[in-house]
């Protein structure tokens, strides 16, 4: 696991900017956000790069570069990686888009709290109560 040095803003393991520093100084890049989402899924499953690269039929080095946000993955490659991880491509894209929204200071649509209760929801609730 990476160790971040808050004093220098660098990751001690490989001297890269911390997440906070990157977010403060660089524009959101979809390839970086996609890579972080893919890596998180792989790690949550307890799988190695080698296992996923084999299942996805992509080289280990290329998958590593995709996860680190250094390579733009084609839609075909993303689909193959998602199949290997047994995760819907749409879910990975949605999570990456949410991360871009947050990075750019916006709240993702599904996380917004409405200003008022939608009329249809009110009608449904009244119908359930028999009114």
From TrEMBL:
Gene3D superfamilies: lambda repressor-like DNA-binding domains. InterPro entries: Cro/C1-type_HTH, Lambda_DNA-bd_dom_sf, TransReg_Diox_bact_type. Residues 1-19 have a biased composition (Polar residues). Residues 38-92 form the HTH cro/C1-type domain. SMART domains: HTH_XRE. It comes from the Bacteria. Residues 1-23 are annotated as: Disordered. The keyword DNA-binding applies. GO terms for molecular function: DNA binding; DNA-binding transcription factor activity. Pfam families: HTH_31. The keyword Cell inner membrane does not apply. Keywords: DNA-binding. GO terms for cellular component: cytosol. This is Helix-turn-helix domain-containing protein. It comes from Actinobaculum suis. The lineage of its organism: Bacteria, Bacillati, Actinomycetota, Actinomycetes, Actinomycetales.
């Amino acid at each position: 696991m990476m160790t971040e040095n808050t004093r220098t803003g660098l990751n001690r393991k490989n001297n890269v900017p911390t997440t906070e520093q990157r977010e403060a100084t660089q524009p959101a890049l979809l390839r970086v956000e996609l890579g972080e989402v893919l890596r998180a899924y792989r790690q949550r499953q307890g799988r190695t790069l080698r296992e996923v690269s084999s299942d996805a039929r992509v080289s280990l080095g290329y998958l590593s570069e995709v996860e680190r946000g250094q390579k733009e993955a084609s839609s075909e490659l993303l689909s193959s990686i998602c199949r290997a991880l047994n995760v819907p491509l749409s879910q990975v894209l949605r999570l990456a888009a949410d991360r871009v929204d947050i990075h750019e200071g916006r709240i993702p649509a599904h996380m917004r709290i409405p200003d008022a209760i939608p009329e249809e929801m009110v009608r449904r609730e009244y119908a359930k109560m028999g009114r």
